[in-house]
Amino acid sequence: MRRAIVFVACAVVTAALAAPAQAGPSSSKTQGQTTEYVVLYKDGVSLEKAHSAVKAAGGTIVKENAAVGVATVRSSSTAFAVDARKQSAVDGVARNRAVGEAPKLARAAVNKSQAVEKEGRHGSRGSTSSHKPSAEPLANLQWDMKQIHATAGGSYKKEPGDHRVLVGVIDTGIDGTHPDIAPNFNRALSRNFTTDIPVDANGTEVDGPCEHPSCVDPVDEDDNEHGTHVASTIGAPLNGLGIAGVAPDVSLVNVRAGQDSGYFFLQPVVDALTYSGDHGIDVVNMSFYTDPWLFNCTNNPADSPENQAEQRTVIQASERALAYAHRHGVTLVSAAGNGATDYTKTITDASSPDYPSVPGEAPYSRTIPPSCVSEPSEGQNVIAVSALGISTRKSYYSDYGNGYVAVSAPGGDSYDTADNKADVTHAILAAYPKSLAVARGELNPDGTPNVPYVVRSCKGSTCGYYQYLQGTSMASPHATGVVALIVSRYGSRDRVHGGLTLSPARAQSILEGTATEHACPTPRAFTYTRQVLQSDGTYLTVTTTHTCEGSKSSNGFYGHGIIDALGAVSH
Protein backbone atom coordinates (compact mmCIF):
# COMPACT_ATOMS: atom_id res chain seq x y z
CA MET A 1 0.00 0.00 0.00
CA ARG A 2 1.45 3.36 -0.94
CA ARG A 3 -0.17 6.77 -0.52
CA ALA A 4 -3.38 6.66 -2.53
CA ILE A 5 -4.57 3.11 -2.03
CA VAL A 6 -4.56 1.84 -5.61
CA PHE A 7 -2.73 -1.14 -7.02
CA VAL A 8 -2.22 -0.66 -10.79
CA ALA A 9 -2.62 -4.34 -13.01
CA CYS A 10 -9.63 26.87 -3.87
CA ALA A 11 -11.39 29.71 -4.89
CA VAL A 12 -13.17 30.20 -1.56
CA VAL A 13 -11.72 29.65 1.94
CA THR A 14 -13.92 29.36 5.01
CA ALA A 15 -13.44 31.53 8.05
CA ALA A 16 -12.05 28.55 9.93
CA LEU A 17 -9.11 28.52 7.53
CA ALA A 18 -8.16 32.18 7.99
CA ALA A 19 -4.44 32.77 8.47
CA PRO A 20 -3.68 35.24 11.27
CA ALA A 21 -0.45 37.21 10.93
CA GLN A 22 2.40 36.23 13.23
CA ALA A 23 5.82 37.64 13.91
CA GLY A 24 8.87 35.84 12.56
CA PRO A 25 11.18 33.58 14.60
CA SER A 26 13.25 35.00 17.42
CA SER A 27 16.73 36.18 16.47
CA SER A 28 18.12 34.32 19.48
CA LYS A 29 17.41 30.96 17.87
CA THR A 30 19.68 29.25 15.38
CA GLN A 31 18.39 30.08 11.93
CA GLY A 32 18.21 27.44 9.23
CA GLN A 33 16.18 26.61 6.15
CA THR A 34 12.50 27.50 6.51
CA THR A 35 10.54 24.38 7.44
CA GLU A 36 6.80 23.82 7.52
CA TYR A 37 5.06 22.18 10.48
CA VAL A 38 1.58 21.16 11.53
CA VAL A 39 0.86 22.39 15.05
CA LEU A 40 -1.92 20.92 17.16
CA TYR A 41 -3.34 23.25 19.80
CA LYS A 42 -4.38 21.99 23.23
CA ASP A 43 -8.04 21.04 23.21
CA GLY A 44 -10.10 24.01 24.38
CA VAL A 45 -7.26 26.54 24.46
CA SER A 46 -8.07 30.04 23.21
CA LEU A 47 -6.76 31.05 19.81
CA GLU A 48 -5.03 34.03 21.40
CA LYS A 49 -2.96 31.76 23.64
CA ALA A 50 -2.26 29.35 20.79
CA HIS A 51 -1.06 32.16 18.54
CA SER A 52 1.18 33.51 21.28
CA ALA A 53 2.67 30.05 21.81
CA VAL A 54 3.51 29.66 18.13
CA LYS A 55 5.08 33.11 18.06
CA ALA A 56 7.11 32.44 21.19
CA ALA A 57 8.56 29.29 19.60
CA GLY A 58 9.60 31.26 16.52
CA GLY A 59 6.84 30.27 14.12
CA THR A 60 4.62 32.05 11.60
CA ILE A 61 1.10 30.76 11.03
CA VAL A 62 0.26 30.50 7.34
CA LYS A 63 -3.00 28.56 7.63
CA GLU A 64 -5.27 27.72 10.53
CA ASN A 65 -8.18 25.36 11.00
CA ALA A 66 -9.78 26.76 14.13
CA ALA A 67 -12.54 24.13 14.11
CA VAL A 68 -10.16 21.43 15.32
CA GLY A 69 -7.20 23.52 16.49
CA VAL A 70 -4.69 22.69 13.76
CA ALA A 71 -2.35 25.19 12.09
CA THR A 72 0.25 25.11 9.36
CA VAL A 73 3.32 26.98 10.62
CA ARG A 74 6.60 27.96 9.01
CA SER A 75 9.78 28.58 10.92
CA SER A 76 13.48 28.98 10.19
CA SER A 77 14.35 28.19 13.79
CA THR A 78 16.00 24.79 14.03
CA ALA A 79 14.61 24.49 17.56
CA PHE A 80 11.01 25.28 16.65
CA ALA A 81 9.54 21.80 17.19
CA VAL A 82 11.23 21.41 20.58
CA ASP A 83 10.32 24.92 21.72
CA ALA A 84 6.72 24.63 20.52
CA ARG A 85 6.16 21.38 22.41
CA LYS A 86 7.23 23.14 25.61
CA GLN A 87 4.36 25.61 25.24
CA SER A 88 1.36 24.86 27.46
CA ALA A 89 -1.05 25.78 24.63
CA VAL A 90 0.44 23.24 22.20
CA ASP A 91 -0.45 19.54 22.12
CA GLY A 92 1.85 18.40 19.33
CA VAL A 93 4.05 19.31 16.37
CA ALA A 94 4.71 17.39 13.16
CA ARG A 95 6.84 18.34 10.20
CA ASN A 96 4.61 18.97 7.22
CA ARG A 97 6.03 19.22 3.71
CA ALA A 98 7.75 21.57 1.28
CA VAL A 99 5.91 24.60 -0.02
CA GLY A 100 5.02 24.51 -3.72
CA GLU A 101 6.51 27.18 -5.92
CA ALA A 102 5.81 27.87 -9.56
CA PRO A 103 9.00 27.37 -11.60
CA LYS A 104 10.28 30.28 -13.63
CA LEU A 105 9.36 28.51 -16.85
CA ALA A 106 6.27 26.48 -15.96
CA ARG A 107 5.19 23.91 -18.51
CA ALA A 108 2.04 24.70 -20.44
CA ALA A 109 -1.12 23.53 -18.72
CA VAL A 110 -3.44 21.10 -20.46
CA ASN A 111 -6.36 23.11 -21.80
CA LYS A 112 -9.57 21.90 -20.21
CA SER A 113 -12.98 23.40 -20.75
CA GLN A 114 -15.08 24.16 -17.69
CA ALA A 115 -17.86 21.68 -17.03
CA VAL A 116 -21.38 22.92 -16.35
CA GLU A 117 -22.56 21.30 -13.16
CA LYS A 118 -25.78 21.11 -11.19
CA GLU A 119 -25.89 22.69 -7.77
CA GLY A 120 -27.16 19.58 -6.01
CA ARG A 121 -29.13 21.59 -3.47
CA HIS A 122 -32.51 21.79 -5.10
CA GLY A 123 -34.93 19.72 -7.12
CA SER A 124 -37.36 17.00 -6.17
CA ARG A 125 -36.32 13.64 -4.81
CA GLY A 126 -35.10 11.40 -7.61
CA SER A 127 -35.83 14.06 -10.21
CA THR A 128 -32.85 13.10 -12.36
CA SER A 129 -34.10 9.56 -12.96
CA SER A 130 -37.71 9.85 -14.00
CA HIS A 131 -36.83 7.59 -16.92
CA LYS A 132 -36.66 3.83 -16.65
CA PRO A 133 -33.03 2.88 -15.96
CA SER A 134 -31.30 0.93 -18.72
CA ALA A 135 -27.87 -0.65 -18.94
CA GLU A 136 -25.01 1.63 -19.96
CA PRO A 137 -22.88 0.72 -23.03
CA LEU A 138 -20.03 -0.73 -20.95
CA ALA A 139 -22.22 -2.38 -18.30
CA ASN A 140 -21.16 -5.84 -19.50
CA LEU A 141 -17.61 -5.00 -18.38
CA GLN A 142 -18.73 -3.97 -14.89
CA TRP A 143 -18.66 -7.30 -13.10
CA ASP A 144 -18.21 -5.32 -9.90
CA MET A 145 -21.65 -3.71 -10.14
CA LYS A 146 -23.24 -7.09 -10.81
CA GLN A 147 -21.53 -8.49 -7.72
CA ILE A 148 -23.27 -5.93 -5.48
CA HIS A 149 -26.53 -5.74 -7.51
CA ALA A 150 -25.99 -2.14 -8.60
CA THR A 151 -27.55 -2.67 -12.03
CA ALA A 152 -30.46 -1.51 -14.18
CA GLY A 153 -32.50 -4.46 -12.96
CA GLY A 154 -31.27 -4.13 -9.39
CA SER A 155 -30.71 -1.07 -7.21
CA TYR A 156 -31.00 1.49 -10.04
CA LYS A 157 -34.61 0.48 -10.48
CA LYS A 158 -35.35 0.74 -6.75
CA GLU A 159 -33.18 3.76 -5.81
CA PRO A 160 -30.66 5.41 -8.15
CA GLY A 161 -29.80 8.05 -5.58
CA ASP A 162 -30.86 11.63 -4.99
CA HIS A 163 -29.02 14.66 -6.36
CA ARG A 164 -29.39 16.36 -2.99
CA VAL A 165 -27.10 13.74 -1.46
CA LEU A 166 -23.52 15.03 -1.44
CA VAL A 167 -20.62 12.60 -1.71
CA GLY A 168 -17.21 14.02 -0.84
CA VAL A 169 -14.26 12.50 -2.68
CA ILE A 170 -11.15 13.15 -0.57
CA ASP A 171 -8.62 12.26 -3.21
CA THR A 172 -6.27 13.58 -5.90
CA GLY A 173 -9.01 15.61 -7.58
CA ILE A 174 -11.84 14.89 -9.99
CA ASP A 175 -11.85 15.51 -13.73
CA GLY A 176 -15.13 17.38 -13.67
CA THR A 177 -15.05 17.74 -17.45
CA HIS A 178 -15.22 13.98 -18.04
CA PRO A 179 -18.53 13.41 -19.88
CA ASP A 180 -19.42 10.52 -17.56
CA ILE A 181 -18.87 12.66 -14.45
CA ALA A 182 -19.85 16.22 -15.44
CA PRO A 183 -23.65 15.79 -15.04
CA ASN A 184 -23.20 14.90 -11.36
CA PHE A 185 -20.17 17.10 -10.56
CA ASN A 186 -20.84 19.89 -8.08
CA ARG A 187 -18.21 22.48 -8.88
CA ALA A 188 -19.75 25.11 -6.61
CA LEU A 189 -19.04 23.10 -3.45
CA SER A 190 -15.76 21.54 -4.60
CA ARG A 191 -12.50 22.68 -3.04
CA ASN A 192 -8.79 21.94 -3.43
CA PHE A 193 -6.84 22.04 -0.17
CA THR A 194 -3.46 21.19 -1.72
CA THR A 195 -0.59 23.10 -3.26
CA ASP A 196 1.58 21.36 -5.85
CA ILE A 197 5.06 20.40 -4.61
CA PRO A 198 7.64 20.44 -7.41
CA VAL A 199 10.44 18.64 -5.49
CA ASP A 200 11.01 17.19 -2.02
CA ALA A 201 13.69 18.06 0.55
CA ASN A 202 16.21 15.94 -1.36
CA GLY A 203 15.47 17.67 -4.66
CA THR A 204 13.64 14.63 -6.06
CA GLU A 205 10.62 15.41 -8.22
CA VAL A 206 7.29 15.05 -6.42
CA ASP A 207 4.47 16.71 -8.36
CA GLY A 208 6.82 18.24 -10.90
CA PRO A 209 6.59 21.79 -12.28
CA CYS A 210 3.34 23.54 -11.39
CA GLU A 211 0.75 23.66 -14.17
CA HIS A 212 -0.70 26.89 -12.81
CA PRO A 213 1.04 30.06 -11.54
CA SER A 214 -0.47 29.60 -8.07
CA CYS A 215 0.54 25.91 -7.90
CA VAL A 216 -3.09 25.27 -6.91
CA ASP A 217 -5.02 23.20 -9.46
CA PRO A 218 -8.64 24.07 -10.37
CA VAL A 219 -11.32 22.05 -8.63
CA ASP A 220 -12.29 20.19 -11.82
CA GLU A 221 -8.79 18.89 -12.55
CA ASP A 222 -7.14 15.57 -11.71
CA ASP A 223 -3.53 15.19 -12.84
CA ASN A 224 -3.20 11.83 -11.11
CA GLU A 225 -6.20 9.68 -12.32
CA HIS A 226 -6.97 8.14 -8.93
CA GLY A 227 -9.70 10.53 -7.79
CA THR A 228 -11.50 10.44 -11.14
CA HIS A 229 -11.63 6.63 -11.09
CA VAL A 230 -13.00 6.69 -7.53
CA ALA A 231 -15.59 9.40 -8.27
CA SER A 232 -17.08 7.66 -11.29
CA THR A 233 -17.30 4.35 -9.44
CA ILE A 234 -19.43 6.15 -6.88
CA GLY A 235 -21.60 8.27 -9.11
CA ALA A 236 -21.17 8.03 -12.89
CA PRO A 237 -24.66 8.92 -14.25
CA LEU A 238 -27.11 6.93 -16.34
CA ASN A 239 -26.57 8.98 -19.48
CA GLY A 240 -26.13 6.42 -22.25
CA LEU A 241 -22.33 6.74 -22.20
CA GLY A 242 -19.71 4.41 -20.79
CA ILE A 243 -20.43 3.12 -17.29
CA ALA A 244 -22.74 3.87 -14.39
CA GLY A 245 -21.67 4.23 -10.77
CA VAL A 246 -23.17 2.65 -7.70
CA ALA A 247 -25.32 5.75 -7.07
CA PRO A 248 -25.85 7.33 -10.51
CA ASP A 249 -28.01 10.26 -9.36
CA VAL A 250 -26.04 11.65 -6.40
CA SER A 251 -23.81 14.75 -6.43
CA LEU A 252 -20.02 14.40 -6.47
CA VAL A 253 -17.98 16.96 -4.57
CA ASN A 254 -14.22 17.21 -5.00
CA VAL A 255 -12.76 17.71 -1.52
CA ARG A 256 -9.18 17.38 -2.61
CA ALA A 257 -6.44 16.52 -0.14
CA GLY A 258 -4.10 14.49 -2.39
CA GLN A 259 -1.11 15.78 -4.33
CA ASP A 260 -0.69 15.13 -8.07
CA SER A 261 1.90 12.54 -7.03
CA GLY A 262 -0.52 10.75 -4.72
CA TYR A 263 0.78 11.92 -1.34
CA PHE A 264 -1.79 12.90 1.30
CA PHE A 265 -0.43 15.22 3.98
CA LEU A 266 -1.93 15.97 7.36
CA GLN A 267 -3.11 19.57 7.01
CA PRO A 268 -5.03 19.10 3.71
CA VAL A 269 -6.67 15.95 5.08
CA VAL A 270 -7.75 17.75 8.26
CA ASP A 271 -9.07 20.68 6.20
CA ALA A 272 -10.98 18.38 3.83
CA LEU A 273 -12.68 16.57 6.71
CA THR A 274 -13.70 19.72 8.58
CA TYR A 275 -14.92 21.34 5.35
CA SER A 276 -17.07 18.27 4.70
CA GLY A 277 -18.60 18.57 8.17
CA ASP A 278 -19.30 22.29 7.73
CA HIS A 279 -20.91 22.02 4.29
CA GLY A 280 -23.39 19.18 4.56
CA ILE A 281 -21.40 16.41 2.89
CA ASP A 282 -23.26 13.18 3.64
CA VAL A 283 -20.46 10.65 3.11
CA VAL A 284 -16.77 10.87 2.24
CA ASN A 285 -14.56 8.34 0.52
CA MET A 286 -10.97 8.11 1.78
CA SER A 287 -8.86 5.81 -0.39
CA PHE A 288 -5.49 6.78 1.08
CA TYR A 289 -3.35 6.85 4.17
CA THR A 290 -1.94 10.03 5.64
CA ASP A 291 1.76 10.46 4.80
CA PRO A 292 4.53 10.13 5.70
CA TRP A 293 3.82 7.26 8.14
CA LEU A 294 1.91 4.18 6.98
CA PHE A 295 1.55 3.32 10.67
CA ASN A 296 1.73 5.90 13.45
CA CYS A 297 3.17 4.61 16.72
CA THR A 298 3.21 6.61 19.94
CA ASN A 299 6.29 4.99 21.49
CA ASN A 300 7.93 2.59 19.03
CA PRO A 301 11.54 2.00 20.20
CA ALA A 302 12.67 2.00 16.56
CA ASP A 303 11.63 5.67 16.28
CA SER A 304 13.51 8.69 17.51
CA PRO A 305 11.80 10.86 20.15
CA GLU A 306 11.17 13.44 17.39
CA ASN A 307 9.47 10.86 15.16
CA GLN A 308 7.44 9.48 18.06
CA ALA A 309 6.18 12.98 18.84
CA GLU A 310 5.38 13.56 15.18
CA GLN A 311 3.32 10.36 14.93
CA ARG A 312 1.41 11.19 18.10
CA THR A 313 0.47 14.50 16.50
CA VAL A 314 -0.70 12.78 13.32
CA ILE A 315 -2.97 10.51 15.35
CA GLN A 316 -4.38 13.32 17.51
CA ALA A 317 -5.01 15.71 14.63
CA SER A 318 -6.53 13.01 12.42
CA GLU A 319 -8.84 11.79 15.17
CA ARG A 320 -10.01 15.32 15.93
CA ALA A 321 -10.86 15.92 12.29
CA LEU A 322 -12.60 12.54 11.88
CA ALA A 323 -14.62 13.14 15.04
CA TYR A 324 -15.58 16.63 13.85
CA ALA A 325 -16.83 15.35 10.50
CA HIS A 326 -18.67 12.42 12.08
CA ARG A 327 -20.27 14.71 14.67
CA HIS A 328 -21.50 16.93 11.83
CA GLY A 329 -23.23 14.09 9.99
CA VAL A 330 -20.52 12.74 7.68
CA THR A 331 -20.31 8.97 7.24
CA LEU A 332 -16.63 8.02 6.95
CA VAL A 333 -15.58 5.28 4.52
CA SER A 334 -11.95 4.21 3.96
CA ALA A 335 -9.94 1.72 1.95
CA ALA A 336 -8.39 -1.02 4.11
CA GLY A 337 -5.00 -0.93 2.36
CA ASN A 338 -2.96 -2.96 -0.11
CA GLY A 339 -0.21 -4.37 2.09
CA ALA A 340 -1.56 -7.96 2.15
CA THR A 341 -1.21 -7.92 5.93
CA ASP A 342 -3.38 -8.66 8.94
CA TYR A 343 -3.75 -5.37 10.83
CA THR A 344 -4.51 -7.22 14.06
CA LYS A 345 -1.06 -8.89 14.13
CA THR A 346 2.47 -7.64 14.65
CA ILE A 347 3.99 -6.89 11.25
CA THR A 348 7.05 -5.18 9.75
CA ASP A 349 6.91 -1.87 7.89
CA ALA A 350 9.92 -0.72 5.86
CA SER A 351 8.12 1.98 3.87
CA SER A 352 7.96 4.84 6.38
CA PRO A 353 8.62 7.71 6.41
CA ASP A 354 7.85 7.73 2.69
CA TYR A 355 8.47 11.47 2.24
CA PRO A 356 11.64 13.31 3.31
CA SER A 357 10.61 16.31 5.39
CA VAL A 358 14.30 17.19 5.81
CA PRO A 359 17.26 16.40 3.51
CA GLY A 360 18.53 12.84 3.86
CA GLU A 361 15.47 11.40 5.60
CA ALA A 362 14.66 7.91 4.32
CA PRO A 363 12.41 4.94 5.19
CA TYR A 364 13.65 2.39 7.73
CA SER A 365 12.40 -0.96 8.99
CA ARG A 366 10.17 -1.02 12.07
CA THR A 367 8.30 -3.73 13.93
CA ILE A 368 4.67 -2.62 14.05
CA PRO A 369 2.47 -3.96 16.89
CA PRO A 370 -1.34 -3.77 16.58
CA SER A 371 -1.32 -0.72 18.87
CA CYS A 372 0.11 1.40 16.04
CA VAL A 373 -2.50 3.19 13.94
CA SER A 374 -2.89 3.71 10.20
CA GLU A 375 -4.87 6.89 9.54
CA PRO A 376 -7.63 7.21 8.52
CA SER A 377 -8.63 3.55 8.06
CA GLU A 378 -8.15 2.68 11.75
CA GLY A 379 -9.70 5.92 12.97
CA GLN A 380 -12.74 6.07 15.22
CA ASN A 381 -16.10 5.67 13.39
CA VAL A 382 -14.36 4.85 10.09
CA ILE A 383 -15.75 2.03 7.93
CA ALA A 384 -12.73 0.09 6.60
CA VAL A 385 -13.38 -1.81 3.35
CA SER A 386 -11.43 -4.84 2.08
CA ALA A 387 -11.21 -5.72 -1.62
CA LEU A 388 -12.66 -8.71 -3.46
CA GLY A 389 -11.99 -10.30 -6.82
CA ILE A 390 -14.50 -11.44 -9.43
CA SER A 391 -14.95 -14.83 -7.67
CA THR A 392 -15.67 -13.00 -4.36
CA ARG A 393 -12.38 -14.19 -2.87
CA LYS A 394 -10.46 -11.57 -0.89
CA SER A 395 -8.01 -9.93 -3.29
CA TYR A 396 -4.44 -11.13 -2.86
CA TYR A 397 -3.14 -7.63 -2.04
CA SER A 398 -5.92 -6.53 0.32
CA ASP A 399 -5.14 -5.90 3.97
CA TYR A 400 -7.46 -7.65 6.40
CA GLY A 401 -8.07 -8.39 10.07
CA ASN A 402 -10.90 -9.57 12.32
CA GLY A 403 -12.32 -6.46 13.94
CA TYR A 404 -10.52 -4.16 11.48
CA VAL A 405 -12.48 -4.76 8.27
CA ALA A 406 -16.10 -3.58 8.50
CA VAL A 407 -17.36 -4.72 5.09
CA SER A 408 -15.97 -5.99 1.80
CA ALA A 409 -16.54 -4.83 -1.77
CA PRO A 410 -15.24 -5.49 -5.28
CA GLY A 411 -11.80 -3.96 -5.75
CA GLY A 412 -10.45 -6.22 -8.46
CA ASP A 413 -7.91 -9.04 -8.58
CA SER A 414 -6.36 -9.60 -11.97
CA TYR A 415 -5.01 -12.99 -10.83
CA ASP A 416 -8.45 -14.26 -9.81
CA THR A 417 -8.49 -16.51 -12.89
CA ALA A 418 -8.62 -20.20 -13.68
CA ASP A 419 -4.93 -20.35 -14.66
CA ASN A 420 -3.71 -17.80 -12.08
CA LYS A 421 -2.41 -15.57 -14.87
CA ALA A 422 -3.33 -11.90 -14.96
CA ASP A 423 -6.46 -10.74 -16.77
CA VAL A 424 -6.83 -6.96 -16.76
CA THR A 425 -10.61 -7.19 -17.17
CA HIS A 426 -10.78 -8.67 -13.67
CA ALA A 427 -9.82 -5.24 -12.32
CA ILE A 428 -12.31 -2.37 -11.98
CA LEU A 429 -13.28 -0.23 -14.99
CA ALA A 430 -13.99 3.45 -14.30
CA ALA A 431 -13.43 6.93 -15.73
CA TYR A 432 -10.00 8.12 -16.90
CA PRO A 433 -9.05 11.72 -17.78
CA LYS A 434 -8.46 11.97 -21.53
CA SER A 435 -5.65 14.44 -20.92
CA LEU A 436 -3.64 11.74 -19.13
CA ALA A 437 -4.31 9.13 -21.80
CA VAL A 438 -3.03 11.60 -24.41
CA ALA A 439 0.02 12.61 -22.36
CA ARG A 440 0.95 8.96 -21.77
CA GLY A 441 0.65 8.02 -25.45
CA GLU A 442 -2.18 5.56 -24.85
CA LEU A 443 -4.33 6.73 -27.76
CA ASN A 444 -3.98 6.33 -31.51
CA PRO A 445 -4.25 9.39 -33.79
CA ASP A 446 -7.95 8.61 -34.32
CA GLY A 447 -8.61 8.61 -30.54
CA THR A 448 -8.92 4.85 -30.10
CA PRO A 449 -6.92 3.28 -27.25
CA ASN A 450 -3.70 1.42 -28.07
CA VAL A 451 -3.33 -0.32 -24.71
CA PRO A 452 -5.53 -3.09 -23.30
CA TYR A 453 -6.28 -1.37 -19.98
CA VAL A 454 -7.97 1.69 -21.56
CA VAL A 455 -11.48 1.59 -23.04
CA ARG A 456 -13.37 4.26 -25.02
CA SER A 457 -17.12 4.82 -25.22
CA CYS A 458 -18.79 7.35 -27.51
CA LYS A 459 -22.26 8.83 -27.77
CA GLY A 460 -22.44 10.77 -30.99
CA SER A 461 -19.38 13.02 -31.09
CA THR A 462 -18.86 12.83 -27.31
CA CYS A 463 -16.37 10.24 -26.11
CA GLY A 464 -15.31 9.20 -22.65
CA TYR A 465 -12.26 7.18 -21.62
CA TYR A 466 -12.06 4.52 -18.92
CA GLN A 467 -9.30 2.40 -17.43
CA TYR A 468 -8.89 -0.75 -15.37
CA LEU A 469 -7.36 -0.34 -11.91
CA GLN A 470 -7.42 -2.57 -8.84
CA GLY A 471 -6.95 -1.92 -5.16
CA THR A 472 -8.83 -1.34 -1.95
CA SER A 473 -9.03 2.19 -3.38
CA MET A 474 -11.48 0.70 -5.84
CA ALA A 475 -13.39 -1.26 -3.17
CA SER A 476 -14.00 1.68 -0.85
CA PRO A 477 -15.98 3.80 -3.38
CA HIS A 478 -18.40 0.92 -3.94
CA ALA A 479 -19.23 1.02 -0.23
CA THR A 480 -19.38 4.83 -0.32
CA GLY A 481 -21.85 4.63 -3.19
CA VAL A 482 -24.07 2.26 -1.22
CA VAL A 483 -24.00 4.66 1.74
CA ALA A 484 -25.09 7.43 -0.65
CA LEU A 485 -28.02 5.25 -1.73
CA ILE A 486 -28.91 4.63 1.90
CA VAL A 487 -28.99 8.37 2.62
CA SER A 488 -31.06 8.89 -0.54
CA ARG A 489 -33.55 6.24 0.51
CA TYR A 490 -33.87 6.84 4.24
CA GLY A 491 -32.54 10.35 4.82
CA SER A 492 -34.62 13.32 5.93
CA ARG A 493 -34.37 17.00 5.03
CA ASP A 494 -31.20 18.66 6.25
CA ARG A 495 -32.52 21.78 7.97
CA VAL A 496 -29.05 23.30 8.20
CA HIS A 497 -27.76 22.79 4.65
CA GLY A 498 -30.94 22.13 2.70
CA GLY A 499 -30.20 18.68 1.31
CA LEU A 500 -30.78 15.25 2.83
CA THR A 501 -29.20 13.88 5.98
CA LEU A 502 -28.96 10.60 7.88
CA SER A 503 -26.95 9.93 10.99
CA PRO A 504 -23.64 8.16 10.27
CA ALA A 505 -24.49 5.51 12.88
CA ARG A 506 -27.76 4.70 11.11
CA ALA A 507 -26.10 4.65 7.68
CA GLN A 508 -23.37 2.29 8.89
CA SER A 509 -25.91 0.05 10.60
CA ILE A 510 -27.87 -0.37 7.36
CA LEU A 511 -24.72 -0.87 5.28
CA GLU A 512 -23.42 -3.63 7.55
CA GLY A 513 -26.84 -5.11 8.33
CA THR A 514 -27.74 -5.62 4.67
CA ALA A 515 -24.33 -6.93 3.57
CA THR A 516 -24.27 -10.55 2.44
CA GLU A 517 -22.53 -12.64 5.07
CA HIS A 518 -19.58 -14.61 3.75
CA ALA A 519 -17.74 -17.23 5.77
CA CYS A 520 -13.97 -17.63 5.85
CA PRO A 521 -12.55 -19.95 3.19
CA THR A 522 -11.92 -23.60 3.98
CA PRO A 523 -9.21 -24.07 5.03
CA ARG A 524 -8.99 -20.71 6.77
CA ALA A 525 -5.35 -20.38 5.73
CA PHE A 526 -5.95 -19.46 2.09
CA THR A 527 -3.05 -19.72 -0.35
CA TYR A 528 -2.93 -17.36 -3.32
CA THR A 529 -1.05 -18.59 -6.38
CA ARG A 530 -0.03 -16.09 -9.04
CA GLN A 531 1.69 -16.78 -12.35
CA VAL A 532 3.59 -13.53 -12.81
CA LEU A 533 4.78 -12.75 -16.33
CA GLN A 534 8.50 -11.99 -16.58
CA SER A 535 10.31 -9.80 -19.10
CA ASP A 536 11.61 -12.87 -20.98
CA GLY A 537 8.10 -14.25 -21.50
CA THR A 538 8.28 -16.92 -18.81
CA TYR A 539 6.10 -17.06 -15.70
CA LEU A 540 7.22 -16.95 -12.08
CA THR A 541 5.01 -18.76 -9.57
CA VAL A 542 4.35 -16.63 -6.49
CA THR A 543 2.42 -17.92 -3.48
CA THR A 544 1.27 -16.20 -0.32
CA THR A 545 -0.98 -17.42 2.48
CA HIS A 546 -3.44 -15.30 4.46
CA THR A 547 -5.41 -16.65 7.42
CA CYS A 548 -9.02 -15.61 7.96
CA GLU A 549 -10.27 -15.38 11.54
CA GLY A 550 -13.82 -14.91 12.83
CA SER A 551 -17.34 -16.14 12.21
CA LYS A 552 -19.53 -16.08 9.12
CA SER A 553 -21.21 -12.91 10.34
CA SER A 554 -17.97 -11.09 11.14
CA ASN A 555 -14.48 -12.06 10.03
CA GLY A 556 -11.15 -10.66 8.92
CA PHE A 557 -11.60 -11.12 5.17
CA TYR A 558 -15.19 -9.95 4.68
CA GLY A 559 -16.07 -8.02 7.83
CA HIS A 560 -19.86 -8.09 8.19
CA GLY A 561 -20.18 -9.26 4.60
CA ILE A 562 -20.17 -8.18 0.96
CA ILE A 563 -22.03 -4.92 0.45
CA ASP A 564 -25.36 -5.17 -1.39
CA ALA A 565 -26.75 -2.07 -3.09
CA LEU A 566 -30.17 -3.59 -3.76
CA GLY A 567 -30.42 -5.07 -0.28
CA ALA A 568 -29.52 -1.74 1.30
CA VAL A 569 -32.33 0.17 -0.44
CA SER A 570 -34.83 -2.66 0.13
CA HIS A 571 -34.22 -2.63 3.88
TrEMBL record:
Residues 109-135 are annotated as: Disordered. One of its GO terms (molecular function) is serine-type endopeptidase activity. The active site is at D171, H226, S473. GO terms for biological process: proteolysis. It comes from the Bacteria. Residues 1-23 form the signal peptide. Keywords: Hydrolase, Protease, Serine protease, Signal. Residues 164-538 form the Peptidase S8/S53 domain. InterPro entries: Peptidase_S8/S53_dom, Peptidase_S8/S53_dom_sf, Peptidase_S8_Asp-AS, Peptidase_S8_His-AS, Peptidase_S8_Ser-AS, Peptidase_S8_subtilisin-like, Peptidase_S8_subtilisin-rel. Belongs to the peptidase S8 family. This is Subtilase family protein.
